[in-house]
Write a structure and sequence with these properties.
The protein is mainly alpha-helical. Helix content is 61%, strand content 7%.
């Protein structure tokens, strides 16, 4: 192949020959992404990828950690690819676990813009869309690389895929905020929720996540005031 990252349509075509079910589900990931349904798209992507890996390993009973390790030991993944999938601090497996098991309101995707760290809350669909854009090309390419191991030799030779460079340029970082940090970011004083109420930290995070952003209202009212003053002048 001339390109390291194959076209997604090509991946879907070959995946359909491996598993019609998985190909249809992976196609739905793209449809959900185009509809702006970020969380649905990213959940489906993680689920599909895990199912495909289990099918290649011919092992539906082991944990995802064990499956990825088995594929690595079979030399189907490079060191970098294996780390991206399973062992890095923010690997695909660990990000999937954040969505499934963590208090998502406190977790933010870090995006560097103009030498500043911008926090994108993981509970927002827009953040899931951004995450999908960052990882989906690599995930699709990994799918083709893995299923090509089941192809006949003549076809397999056409799919020599190494994603080390693409993975190196896809550095994902997340930050988990405390309740007090979340309050400050939303424009509240850090003692807005009294300690006397004895509310657990996780419950505070859910309450703050549900609360509106005071900074937005402050911006609106300041501009209304400014416009009113300008008209009076």
């Amino acid at each position: 192949m001339g390109k390291t990252i194959p076209e997604k349509s090509l991946v879907l075509d070959y995946l359909w020959q491996h598993s019609r079910f998985c190909s249809n589900r992976l196609y739905e990931c793209e449809e959900l992404y185009r509809q702006g349904r970020g969380h649905a798209a990213i959940f489906m992507l993680f689920s599909c990828f895990e199912s495909i890996c289990k099918s290649v390993a011919n092992d539906y009973d082991s944990s995802s950690y064990s499956i990825y390790k088995k594929l690595y030991e079979q030399k189907l993944l490079t060191d970098s690819e294996y780390a991206f999938i399973s062992t890095d601090e923010f690997s695909l497996r660990k990000i999937r676990n954040l969505f499934a098991h963590a208090n998502i309101g406190a977790i933010n995707l870090i995006v560097n813009e103009c030498e500043k760290e911008i926090l994108w809350p993981l509970g927002e669909d827009d953040t899931a869309i951004l995450l999908y854009e960052k990882i989906s090309d690599i995930v699709f390419a990994l799918v083709l690389k893995l299923i090509s191991a089941t192809f006949i030799e003549e076809v397999k030779k056409a799919f020599v895929i190494n994603l080390d460079n693409e993975i190196d340029s896809c550095q994902l970082q997340f930050r988990t905020l405390t309740a007090k940090e979340m309050l400050l970011l939303k424009g509240f004083p850090d003692d807005y929720i009294s300690e006397d109420l004895d509310i657990p930290e996780d419950a505070k995070i859910r309450l703050i996540d549900n609360a509106p952003d005071v900074n937005v209202y402050k911006y609106i009212f300041e501009n209304i005031t400014k416009l009113t003053k300008d008209k009076l002048v």
